[in-house]
């Protein structure tokens, strides 16, 4: 199942809980879609942290389920890809806190998020070629460049958190006991910034908009005026997403 909680008023925590590997079968995907739909329409949400319970992030698709899909196999893969696109396009920034296994579709899930942190026991694999499929062949090269990505994509070999940090797949490595706390700290930092500006910045980075298109509304926004007033008054800004 998927555990959805709200540690603060502006941060949503999503925890995959499907032992032993947190595989993304159809039922868990449906729960994730429902949670994302609710997040997308909740203007109070400013950041999302996605992780897995049980010392595992996600080992990808449920291969036991895939084995009996028959004629529905292609539709199931396309459904998975649409879910990844939905996560990537979410209005607010998403942070993947990766502990333990992060294989195949699990790596794609992490790549669909905006930021990734790992525990020092995390293990990654771009394992599409290991099961006769293509996975992460678009997002991974975009993130770390074609040459480094090919070393992972064409071999399907496992690699550790240190290699993920070196290659730029994750931005920091923490102990398992501090990983979620550090992810929440990062989410809190993001949620304290002007939300309209954060969302606009994400759209520009993702190629969904141009700076010139975003600036007029941002300059006229109440949040921008509040930022100036807070600076002049030497106080913390109270952003209202307006």
From TrEMBL:
GO terms for molecular function: catalytic activity. Signal peptide: none annotated. It holds the Pfam family ECH_1. This is Enoyl-CoA hydratase. It comes from Caulobacter zeae. One of its GO terms (biological process) is fatty acid beta-oxidation. Gene3D superfamilies: 2-enoyl-CoA Hydratase, Chain A, domain 1. It comes from the Bacteria. Belongs to the enoyl-CoA hydratase/isomerase family.
